[in-house]
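Hi C.,

You asked whether I'd gotten around to modeling the 734-residue construct. I have! Everything is below, sequence then structure, no commentary in between.
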Amino acid sequence: MTEAVIEAEKKQLAKEYKKLLKISYRNLTADDKKLIRSAFDVAVDAHKDQRRKSGEAYVFHPIAVAKIVAAEIGLDATSIAAALLHDVVEDTQYTLTDLEQLFGETVARIVDGLTKISNMPYDKDVSLQAENFRKMLLTLNEDIRVIIIKIADRLHNMQTMDSMPAHKQVKIASETLYIYAPMAHRIGLYNIKTELEDLGLKYTEPEVYNDIHSKIRDSKEEQDAYIEAFSKTLKDSFDSENLNYEIKGRPKSIFSIRRKMIAQNVSFDEVYDKFAVRIIYKSDLENEKFLAWKIYSIVTDHFRPNPMRLRDWISSPKSTGYEALHITVMGPKGRWVEVQIRSERMNEIAEKGYAAHYKYKNKEKEDGGLDDWLNKLQETLENSEISAVDFVEEFKLNLYAKEIFVFTPKGDLFSLPKGSTALDFAFQVHTEVGMHTRGTKVNGKLVPLSHVLKSGDQVEIITSEKSNPSANWLDYVTTGRARSKIKSSLKDEKKQIAEEGKAVLARKLKSLKITLDEKTINQLVVFFKVKTSLDLFYRVGAGIIDNQKLKDFAASRSNAFVNFFKNKIRKPDKPQDVNKEEITEKYDQLVFGKEEEKLDYKMANCCNPIPGDDVFGFVTVNEGIKVHKQNCPNALQLQSNYNYRIMKAKWIDSTQREFKAKLVITGIDAVGLVNNVTKLISNNMNIDMRGVHFDSDDGVFNGKITVVVKNKNVLDNLVLKLKKINGIDKVTRV
């Protein structure tokens, strides 16, 4: 390295340091500047021997990340120092203890969080991205700044990826689109999200990116002229109202134009709103809302609005804290233009997210839902039952979801992802409310738990201590939070039934002169072809393994000679048996429609679904029902052209499988008879009543009841108990 180069780098470093202090969004105190200076010196010293692939001194990377953190995200001096030091522990001689002594516990903790994200071990069979994402979120309980600095780090890496090999570029860009862009969006860093998406597209689909980029460049002059003409029309009216404002044109991002081209199946020229006009006005807090609607009124006096495209995020801010008024109007030459109306404060929040909130926050003002969001995140993270890949998919649903706003009976406002149901809302209010939901009312009317909510609905949850989640609740919810809570509740219920089952099994085996020990349990697991002892105990508790089956086991065990031959004969088949069991243990049966009927079907060759896949049935003309995967290449075409021939289909877990049975009851009518019948059924834990119909004709009583039971034993017991009720003559199963 020549003296001249080293000298030039030193000068450049001095310049960068001054720039860093100048561009900071916060007002830095003397102590802040001291902290940043020492972090800067340590970073320069630690990385002095390192170079990046481009040949540039490595230390310019942490400085660039610190500049993004200081200017674009607007975090405090602690974060700027942590950004400068973010690679020090990972790549150099400095340890965490050194940092703690030099800069205090907070900086050390943030750097530790960032180092953990970089050095994560992962399971070979789980998507690395998913595991990365989950671990990254787990650091949230330490400090949200860890994630924000990580996003800044990723942004700078994406901006400087040109010297990397192509396969690495694609990997990093895919991960960015999959994880970091949704994260930036959710924290409210819209400018950074847009840049990450565009850079992600640049490396994953370079031809598409370059094509759209050049088309935007070619049409720039024409667009500038159009925005100028659009603005001119409004300026006179704004000036006559003495408004203090600025009108800016903003082309839509390359990524969002690409998304529109795919979603609407149109070419670049056919995308109708390729740019937006932003009106930013000065205002004090009292008049902010009034002025936004005044500007709206002036814009719509000149240009006709599209009533379907009004978005009022001033009255109900997004959960990221975003506030603005969006309208789409018909501009000159018959073109749609999106107009965004924001005060300077709202604009800063849209660009800086979390940091601007912090700046504007006072005792009365809420923190834009960010704290709520972190708490919800924390709940999801603490649920260890859910695999990393499921976690990412559920979390992504909640990241990009459009929002609806619904009210409680008292008028409290909740935001939920679009498509949420009444049961989702119950879990949103509180986990305990969700767990004990008995019924739901929307706008005063009783509705099913699966009722899809719309913005503005008023929802009331009816709870009961006796109500608990059942397996079909998973069909009624769409949010990750509700799903994970229901799943863990069902697991708890399964464990409870298994505990009871263990006691029952010990008692029954004792009467067969068999002791329940580890050896017996292993024999039972093999004999009943279940996977674990938990499955075994659960099946006994639920009555799936009954007395007769246990007698069969005892008989097979006592005859060791026969057993020996059976095993000899069975051995070649065993691997095949085990494999079959692995698939069928969890998903045994395919059922169709709301009634969950068992019908004949064939698997479609185009996508070859296997048990457990998300599927739907399609009624063909000649071949009966064909089962396709939800993401089958033909699914979209079938669903759009032949929607009336689509049947809902799902796999039923063999342990959770339920059977529907219709019972006809006849007898002599008596006061309280109906009550006795329904009471008997509802007090039985494993029975769910789906339909009830009673008639009385001149003293003779007829009843039809549809029940859902786990197995035939439970049904037989119910029939016996019903026959004992005074006045009942006959109980028959249809």
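If it helps when you're writing up: The first helix runs from residue 3 to 23.

Thanks,
B.
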